[in-house]
Records
---
Amino acid sequence: MHYPIGLLFDLLASSSALPWNITVHFKSFPEKDLLHCPSKDAIEAHFMSCIKEADALKHKSQVINEMQKKDHKQLWMGLQNDRFDQFWAINRKLMEYPAEENGFRYIPFRIYQTTTERPFIQKLFRPVAAEGQLHTLGDLLKEVCPSAIAPEDGEKKNQVMIHGIEPMLETPLQWLSEHLSYPDNFLHISIIPQPTD
């Protein structure tokens, strides 16, 4: 429950055919692998916690703190009931930034790899360099996860996936965050071994 379904697909089944067949087990819950979901309220609390964390990175929590409780509820209910307009009316505010700032304060991202024991990598990373140029996905990976990028003269060993697509490494990180973030406002990036077929 704590990983978005699209992220799970990217990590575990992106090379398989669609539709993705999922087997649900009702016994022997894998406590070591998944958070147990005690109630619907726990899911809402986890979601809102992620939203608040993302806003702290993007706007120093200013946007979420200016919202009223009814706005938080509308955000959750829009997501829960699959009502994009209801969700986006509030989430849009979390995706805005002043024009003079050229982007968010930091990009809320998590990098997941199937080849490590570490659940994910998360660090502070600005979307704009000190010199003013936009950082790209490649810049992020070079700094945070250099093993994900093939050397210029080497063979590509990994795929970088977001929402089932492999974005170009030259894509500005700010654009990715605005357009490919999950509903929790995080950019969930999967690093998976390059398919051999």
Note: The helical segments are 5-12, 40-59, 62-66, 69-80, 84-94, 137-144, 173-180.
---
Amino acid sequence: MQSNRHVIYVLKDTSARPAGKGAIIGFLKVGYKKLFVLDDREAHNEVEPLCILDFYIHESVQRHGHGRELFQYMLQKERVEPHQLAIDRPSQKLLKFLNKHYNLETTVPQVNNFVIFEGFFAHQHRPPAPSLRATRHSRAAAAGPTPAAPPRKLPPKRAEGDIKPYSSSDREWGLPQGWWPKAAATAAMGG
């Protein structure tokens, strides 16, 4: 988890003592990920925001405020606002939770599994420690400004009927029949 810059927040009930150690109520896993996301104009953006990777509160203690307590603690520790987060494959329960407690409702459609909300691009996303690439980029910026690339438009989506499954049996190699076994045997013999 350290090499991935992931952090797991665990909420423990110390009063529950099945083995004298308490009981885990839930956890929240977050981490910085490099993502390519679309803004509201459908322009590609490379960002490295804090992402919600996993969030779970045990069913027996849901709707008691534990999820909000854990989520609020993470926001405070990570110094982020809820709209600055990218959420990896959120469940409907998590989306309803974010809407209820943080008024996050309007999403910006993405082509990946992450969900971002309106306001995501209001602030710059900075990873906790600058990467080597970012250091080189800042040196280049100090040397002189470079013009920004214009946002690219995506090609129009194809209709579902145009997409075909990919299979090696569908490929045409253009090789003579019987070529593969002979070449495989020759390669296996070192020739």
Note: The radius of gyration is 24 Å.
---
Amino acid sequence: MANHSQFGFQDASSPIMEELIEFHDHALMVALAICSLVLYLLALMLMEKLSSNTVDAQEVELIWTILPAIVLILLALPSLQILYMMDEIDEPDLTLKAIGHQWYWTYEYTDFKDLTFDSYMIPTAELPSGHFRLLEVDHRVVVPMESPIRIIVTAGDVLHSWAIPSLGVKTDAIPGRLNQTSFITTRPGIFYGQCSEICGANHSYMPIVVESTPLTHFENWSSLLSS
């Protein structure tokens, strides 16, 4: 999770987030190259005397027309690739439904018969030692590690948004509409998120906690909770 004075992204815990961070670094390098070139040309124009060669230079005009098009292609191709990867949902091992309410989440494991629970934020006065304030919940979402997970997101009252930054997941929860996305956790751990759509007075008090565990641990947890 994020910490104080952190300027970068959280550590990636899914293949999609790894791709997003790599594209972010790629775009920054392109922007750095553009800024460096523009600063160099500005400094050159200020220090050098203008000559007739720079007044009518069709070669230069051709270059500064084609070069931005090439830069846009270098940015568009990986961006479109990641966009299609984020929309791709291929035979998930587990389907999870998240329903946003004011101000808590309801989760339904649709592959199980009676596995449904509400997830509320733990108040600061009741928070166990070592847990994160405003981020810990009474019931975590437990998913198997290295398994494709499909999540269907909706809302029961107003707009919400189900977001986990370290997994690269952010899906709007809209009343009367089902949105879906998918993710794969690449390592065991606990991943924190929050509602990312202003949904009322207690918008900042409906966190999301996903716990990634080995498959055997998930099976034991699901059988215990559904029994």
Note: DSSP finds three helices and ten strands in the chain.
